[in-house]
Amino acid sequence: MIHRFLIITLALSLMSCSPENNSPVSVTSSIPKVEVYSVLYGGTKVGSTKVTIDGNDLAIDHEVNNNGRGAKSKGTLTLNDQGVPLAWTIEGVTTFGNAVDEHFSVNEGTASWKAAAGEGSASFDGATAYVSQDGSPYAAYIYVNALLNDDDMTMPMLPSGTLSLNKLDELALTGNGETIDATVYALSGPNLNPAYLAVDTEQKLIAFMSPRFALLREGFEEEDTRLRDLAAALNAARFEDIASRVTHQYESPVRIRNVRVFDPVELKLTEPSSVVVSGGKIVAVEAADAQGSVDEVSIDGAGGSLVPGLYEMHGHMSDNDALLNVMAGVTSVRDTGNEMDVLEALIEKIDNNTLIGPRITKSGFIEGVSEFSNSTGELAETEEQAVQLVRDYAARGGYFQIKIYSSVKGEWVPAMAAEAHKLGMRVSGHIPAFSNADQMIEAGYDEITHINQVMLGWVLDLEEDTRTLYRITGMRRFAGLDLSSDKVQKTINAMVENNIAVDPTMVIHEFGLTARNGETRVGVQDYIQNMPIGVQRDAKSALLNVADAQEDAEYREAFDKIIETLALMHDRGILIVPGTDLGGAFELHRELELFEKVGMSPAEVLRRASYDMAHYLGYGEELGSIEVGKLADFFLVPGNPVEDLKAVKTISLVSRGGDFYFPSELYPEFGIEPFTNAPNVTLPVTD
Asked: Are the CB atoms for 534 and 191 separated by under 8 Å?
C-alpha cells in the first residue's frame, strides 16, 4: 500500500522535516525574484517548488506527484532581518490528502501558531525560529539561512527544542552553464536525523538532499545523483561513527545471568537461567546460578525476560531504519522494495560491521510503467521485460521473492510468477490495478501485500483505479461489509486452499483510518513523549483528510472491519505475517499489539514475530529461538511480555550475532529519551 520511503523519506521529508526555504534574509530589491527548484525522487522528477522573493516576503508554491499521490502547498512568509520567520501561512494537502492550514504570527512579543498537531503560543524575542509542521522541503533553508546569520549557528525553536547547524563539506556544482562554489550543512533539531542542504557563496539554496530525495535549483538537475550520493555518504559516516562507539564486541564469552527465556514452542518463559554467547552463537543455556568461568563477561539480567529477535516483514531499509530496528529488538527484516544498489550496499556494510543493522532478506521490486509508477525498484513496459526482471533478480542471488506493484498489468503475472517459481523465488505484491485478489491467487501469488489490497476487491469495481488514492480512500467502503458474503468467502477459501499468506500492515491502516489532527495517534502513545518535537507533532497529524462526522465514522468502522477480517483469516489458518511499512522498530511493537486484536495471546504473537517468521523465510535452523547452536539474536526487557506485550517496548540490551547494544547509550544521538537503563556489565579481571 504505502512505501516506507514515500511516507518516511518523502512524506517525512516533504511533510514533516518542515522545510520551506530559499531566500537571503535582507533582500532590499523592489523587483520580486523568482527561484525554481525541481523535486526528484530516486532520480525521477516528481514535482517542483517555486519561490517568489520580494524583500523579506516570500511566496512558496510546492507540488509533488509521485505514485499517484503527493503533497501540494502554497505558503507565504515574512522574515525579520536575521531571517527568522515573523509570519507564515501554509495551505494545501499532505502526501495522502490531509488538509494543510497552518498559521504562524508574532504580535507584541508573543508568537502564536496553529497546525495539524494543534496550536500554541510563546514569548518571542526575534531570535527564536518557528519550525513549520507541513512546510515544503524549502523550509529547511529558512532555518539554515537564519542560523548562518547567528554567531554560534544554534537557535531556540518553536514549539520547543533547539536548532543547530554544522558545516560538513565544500564542493563545486555545475548548472545553468556555470560552476559555482557550494557549502554543505547539516541541520539538526526537529527530527531524529539531520537534514542536508547546500548553499552558494551568496547564502542561497542550491539543494536539499537525502539518499533518495532531492530539491535542486533549476538547471542543476544533473547534480542529482552526485548530491544524493553525498547525502548517503554523510548519512553513512554518521551511522558508522555511532556504530564504532556503541557496538560492544567482547573477546571473552558473555554470560547473561538471571533471565527467564521465552520458549516459542512451549509459549512460556523458562525458569531463571543463564545464557552464554561466544563466537556469535549461543553456546549454553544453564541454570541461573551456574558459576561459569573466570574469563567471562557477566551481564546481570535482573530477572528480566530474554526474547528471540523479532522480524519486521515489510520494511524498506535505510541506514537509519536499520539501526533503530536493532535497538527495538528487531534483528531481522524482510525488505519488500528498494533500489538494488541501495539495498545491497546497505547489507554489505551491515555484514562488515560498518553499520548497525538487522539481517535483511531481499525482495525484488517490479513495477509497471504508467503515469502512477512508483519510483522505487525496477520498471517494465512489457510482459517480456517484466519476466526478464524476474530473471535479473534471481541472477543477482539472495532474493527470497519478487514483489509486484500496482502498475504491473495483471495479465503479465502468470508468466512472471511461473518464472519466479522456476527460479526458486516466491511471489508477493499489491493487487495490480484493474485486477482483484482472486485473479492474482490464480495467477500464482504466494502472499498478498497489505490487507486492503485483498479487501478492495470486495468493494471496488474493477474499473476503479487503485494506482490512485482510491486504494486508501476506497477503504471507507469496508464499513458495513458482510464477511459472510459469497465474494468474501470465495477469496478466503482460495487463500486457504492455495496456502496464501497475507502481510496486512495493520499499523499503517490504523494510522490512515483512525489518526486525526490534534490527537496523538494510538499506535505511538506509549513512547511519543520520549521523541523529538518534530516526531511528536507528526504523531498528532492525520494521514488522510476527514471531511465530516460521517466520513470519520466510516473510516473508523473500516479499520474495525479490517481487524474482523484478519480475525476470520486467522481462524481459518491463513498465515498472517507482522510488518509495518512504516520503518519497523517502535511501529512493529504496535503491529504486534494489533495481532492480539486478531485473536492471538501475547505468547503466540511473540512466536509469530520470531520463531514462525524464521521458519517461513527458511532460517529456522539458525534463528527464531534461544537455543544452543543458534545465532545469538535476542533482546532483554525488565518485564514479562508473555503477560503484557507492552514489555517489549522497554529494551535494555540487544544482541545481534553476539554484538551487544544498550539502547540507552544510543538513543540520545537521535534526541530520544531512553526508556530504561542498561544492565550492569562486569568485565573479567585481567592481570
From this structure: yes
CB neighbourhood size of 22 (10 A): 31
- At 25 the pLDDT is 44
pLDDT one-digit tens code per residue, 497-555: 999 999 999 999 999 999 999 999 999 999 999 999 999 999 999 988 888 999 999 99
What is the grid cell recorded at 341? 544498489
Per the CB < 8 A criterion, the answer to whether 520 and 659 are in contact is: no
Secondary structure (DSSP) of 62-94: EEE-BTTB--EEEEEEEE-TTS-EEEEEEEEE-
Cβ neighbours around 659 below 10 Å, total = 19
C-alpha to C-alpha distance for 53 and 463, rounded to whole angstroms: 45
**Dist. CA 556–CA 550, nearest whole Å:** 10
pTM, two decimal places: 0.88
Cα gap 296→277, rounded to integer Å: 10
Q: Cα–Cα distance between 562 and 455 in angstroms, integer?
A: 8
Q: Find the Cα–Cα–Cα–Cα dihedral 595, 600, 605, 609, rounded to 10°.
A: -70
Which three-class secondary structure state does DSSP give residue 295?
coil
Work out the mean pLDDT of the chain and round it to a whole number: 93
Nearest to 648 by CA among 665, 635, 658: 635
Contact 455, 565 (CB under 8 A): yes
Residues 36-67 pLDDT 10s: 999 998 888 999 999 999 999 999 999 998 87
Here the cell at position 128 is 527564536
Evaluate the CA torsion angle 559, 561, 565, 571 in order and state its sign: positive
Q: In sequence order, which residues have a C-beta less than 8 Å from that of residue 682 and are 6 or more positions away?
A: 297, 298, 299, 300
What domains does the chain contain, in order, with CATH numbers?
A: 4-244 (no CATH), 250-308+624-687 (2.30.40.10), 310-621 (3.20.20.140)
Q: In this structure, what DSSP letter does residue 657 have? A: T
**Bridge partners of residue 24, in order along the sequence:** none
The one-letter code for the residue type at 685 is V
Three-state secondary structure call for residue 653? strand
* Cβ count near 67 (within 10 Å): 24
Question: Which grid cell is 637?
Answer: 526487557
Of the candidates 418, 477, 428, the one whose C-alpha atom is nearest the C-alpha of residue 452 is 477
The per-residue pLDDT for 1 is 37
In this structure, are residues 651 and 664 in contact, taking their beta carbons and an 8 Å threshold?
no
Q: What pairing do the DSSP bridges indicate for beta strands 378-380 and 359-368?
A: parallel
More reliable by pLDDT, 593 or 2: 593
Residue 174 phi/psi, 5-degree rounding, is -115, 130
